[in-house]
Amino acid sequence: MVDAPKKDAEGRTIPHDHAEVLNKHNFIRRISEQFIVTDNDGKGRRLSSATLHPSSIEYDIYEGLSGDLEAFLLADGHDPKAFVTSAAHPGSIKFAVETFRSLGLLVGYDPTTDNQYHGGVWPSADKTARLTPGVKKRLMKLAEWYVEIDGVSLKK
Known about the structure:
About 30% of the residues are buried. A hairpin with a 6-residue loop joins strand 2 (about 35-40) and strand 3 (about 45). This protein has helices at about 70-75, 80-85, 95-100, 135-140, and strands spanning about 25-30, 35-40, 45, 65-70, 90-95, 105-110, 120, 145, 150-155. The chain is about 15% helix and about 25% strand. By secondary structure, it is α+β, with helices and mostly antiparallel strands. It has one domain. It has four helices and nine strands; from the N terminus they run E-E-E-E-H-H-E-H-E-E-H-E-E. It is globular. It has a six-stranded antiparallel sheet with strand order 6-7-4-1-5-8.
């Protein structure tokens, strides 16, 4: 059983570094068609910069990046690749949790009513570490396919 994260007065998960989310664990980001663009030369398709946009402040006051926690899925006997793949999300990318933490970002457990394996990546408490355009660009260079989408490149 995973320790539940603390919630604010509105019932939202408070950004935190969750002790049970280890650096060696994988954070999975689902990919939908909205994250795929055609290259400038019109010859290929690739993931867009929107792939790592955190939720807008209107949707999530903490500006978290949503994903799934592979280790939690495995611990409950799920096939993570099947769990994160659907018609709406035909592919996914992964990052080692350590990748985010090495940039000063917080990574924690953020279960939702629809997904008890949901995790979040948030800015540091003092907001000095955030998912800025430069940070997102660095992260995209480190992204790896988890469930690959044929004909779509990870890199520019």
